[in-house]
Amino acid sequence: MTSQPSGIPPRQRPRSLSGMQPTSDSLHIGNYVGALVNWVELQDSYDAFYFIADLHALTVPTDPEVLRRRTRVTAAQFIAGGVDPERSAVFCQSHLPQHAELGWVMNCLTAMGEAERMTQFKDKVAKGQSANVGLFTYPMLMAADILGYDADRVPVGEDQRQHLEITRDLAQRFNQRYGETLVVPEAHILKETAKIMELSDPGSKMSGTNSPDAGVVLLSDDPKRIVKKIKSAVTDAEREIRYDPEHKPGVSNLLVIESALTGVPVDSLEQGYAGRGYGDLKTQVADAVVSAVEPFQRRMRELLDDPAELDRILAAGAAKAGPISAATLARVKDRLGLLPPG
Ligand code: TRP
After folding, report:
1. Percent of the chain residues topping a pLDDT of 90
2. DSSP 3-state assignment of 143?
3. Verdict on whether the full-model pTM lies above 0.90
4. Does the C-beta of 74 come closer than 6 Å to ligand 1?
5. pLDDT tens for each residue of 73-95
6. 273 CA to middle of ligand 1, Å?
7. 97 C-alpha vs ligand 1 centroid, how far in Å?
8. 160 lines ligand 1 (CB under 6 A)
């Protein structure tokens, strides 16, 4: 790797890293085809770090029992979706104190105005979410998550672009002030075509926290429920099955879902649907979703039925990831002029 700063230890392979917040009772197919599939792919050529961003989840007050449950579900779903804990480090952010500690350093490197310009924060406040200071400093904790692992590549959705930009700015600023210390990561913004919209309102992005139940296919939904949701998906008054997100957002969304799950390109699907109606489309999409979800759910249930095993996997993930972020933090502290302990 040519871009590696001279001040950091050499690595065998480039690193990918990403996280998700445990803020819903199940991931949905949008998370699966939009993010998880990419995470899984990156495992082949990167040393991968995938974590449950439970500290970020505290920015919205949550019942402790609910948080515990959602954290385990999220971990189980990463693995059921193909993240391989033998190859990748799968862990909880809160198990490694270096995230919060490096987050503090990032806070002290960030100008007030810079944090105040973060659009996700501004949007949430504008929508009336009562913000705490943690929500305000959320991007700096996220920067710490990434920079602690010298991550080269960070696969995230479009909504995280600005957070990646501030992460890069902070890494560059640190390197400028204190000497080459941190890897400046590349954002890997996941393709727009993998963006899945709500079934009931194809103008809005499918969201585990904001979408109505009928609009979201959860990975934990019973297959019968999945079929029902897809059959009720909003389409349009025409009959033609064609990919045209602007004029036919509902039909296009169904085509994208089928394509993502079967690997058949959208234009081949369109050809196959020539002369057929929306009923056929919905049946075929429902079949594709159910066949993807059934093996996923089997594996998820196995993992959730054995919480001790799941906790062991998370402990092993933390044991793999911990020394790496601990080393980065030690490097950072030394550069800052903090005395070594003892
Ligand atoms: N903010 C991300 C989201 O809500 C989750 C996240 C936290 C993350 N830390 C990260 C993603 C570090 C990538 C890298 O989707």
Report:
1. 88
2. helix
3. yes
4. no
5. 999 999 999 999 999 999 999 99
6. 38
7. 17
8. yes
Q: How far is CA 133 from CA 115, 188, 194, in A?
A: 11, 28, 33
Q: What is the mean pLDDT of residues 140-167?
A: 96
DSSP codes joined into one string, 287-319: HHHHHHHHHHHHHHHHHHT-HHHHHHHHHHHHH
Contact status, residue 218 vs residue 26, Cβ threshold 8 Å: yes
Q: Which is nearest to 207 in space by CA: 333, 20, 47, 16?
A: 20
**β-pair partners for 153:** 16, 186
Among 74-83, 163-172, 257-266, which stretch is predicted with the lowest mean pLDDT? 257-266
Distance (angstroms) between ligand 1 centre and the Cα of 283 equals 35
pLDDT at 327 over 70: yes
Could you tell me the CA-to-CA distances from 54 to 68, 69, 178 in Å, in that order?
A: 9, 11, 30
Pocket test for ligand 1, best of 83, 163, 207 (most atoms within 8 A of CB): 163
Cα 64 to ligand 1 centre (Å):
21
Q: Is 246 exposed, middle or buried (0-12, 13-18, 19+ CB in 10 A)?
A: exposed
| Digit-coded pLDDT (tens) for 7-50 | 777 888 999 999 999 999 999 999 998 889 999 999 999 999 99
Q: Which of 57, 17, 62 is nearest to 35 (CA)?
A: 17
Binned at pLDDT 50, 70 and 90, residue 193 comes out as low
Which residue among 71, 156, 207 has the greatest number of ligand 1 atoms within 8 angstroms of its CB, and so is best to mutate? 156
Whose C-alpha lies nearest to ligand 1, atom 6?
Answer: 19
